[in-house]
């Protein structure tokens, strides 16, 4: 994948040949990527969607099992489809433009409540939260 770093962390129980084989199943060949960990052993792993719906369950289960085996407490994987609950890049850009317009074009001598509601309407604070 041209969008992944040269080196990245993967569960040790996944063999190199499995990773190479599975990489073709992910959109943009974006393999699961370890992004963050907590001292309790929890980790954040990002993963692109799997192209082949028929293979999706098998590959997803294999990778989730490997992640579970890598957790010190063998905790189950919690999955969240961020495409459904996060704004897309166009929505974030539109909110940023509205925020800039509000901060540059809106006079502060108007009632503070109007300015705060205008700020809320940009959705910028919601997105960065």
TrEMBL record:
One of its GO terms (cellular component) is membrane. Substrate binds at residues 88-89. It comes from the Eukaryota. One of its GO terms (biological process) is phosphatidylinositol dephosphorylation. Residues 1-129 form the Myotubularin phosphatase domain. Belongs to the protein-tyrosine phosphatase family. Non-receptor class myotubularin subfamily. This is MTMRA protein.
């Amino acid at each position: 994948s041209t969008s992944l770093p040269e080196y990245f962390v993967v569960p040790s129980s996944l063999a190199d040949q499995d990773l190479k084989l599975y990489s073709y199943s992910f959109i943009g060949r974006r393999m699961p990527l370890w992004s963050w960990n907590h001292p309790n052993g929890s980790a954040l792993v990002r993963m692109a969607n799997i192209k082949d719906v028929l293979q999706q369950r098998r590959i997803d289960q294999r990778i989730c099992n490997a992640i579970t085996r890598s957790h010190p407490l063998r905790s189950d994987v919690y999955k969240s489809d961020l495409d459904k609950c996060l704004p897309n890049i166009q929505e974030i850009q539109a909110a940023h433009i509205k925020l800039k317009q509000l901060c540059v074009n809106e006079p502060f001598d108007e009632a503070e409540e109007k300015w705060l509601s205008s700020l809320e309407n940009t959705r910028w604070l919601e997105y960065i939260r």
